[in-house]
Sequence to fold (113 residues):
Amino acid sequence: MRLAVLSLVALTALPGLAWADAIDGAWCSNNGRRFVISGPQITTPAGTATTGDYGRHSFSYTVPASDPGAGSVVRMILMGEYHVQVQEGAAAPVVWDRCGPSISLLLRRRLIG
Fold:
């Protein structure tokens, strides 16, 4: 029993593991860009709907022809519940944050309840 408790404490104390449920959801950059993942579906920062290679804690896709950077591969790795590391082509990886609720959702909640 003592070993089980110590093991559980050690596992929960390890930093840097992706404990979030999934990479699905809306993600925002610090310069106003946004993308949304739902399973293998993604709406790119340019607003194009396409598909990619979905893993519960990772995602990658080839930028569609209509988007800036067409043909490059974007790779993402979940870094926890609120952060995802995004690498576009050969560029240095950057961290994006999970988007907060939209203004329309906040207003609707205020009006309804």
Summary: The chain has two helices and nine strands.
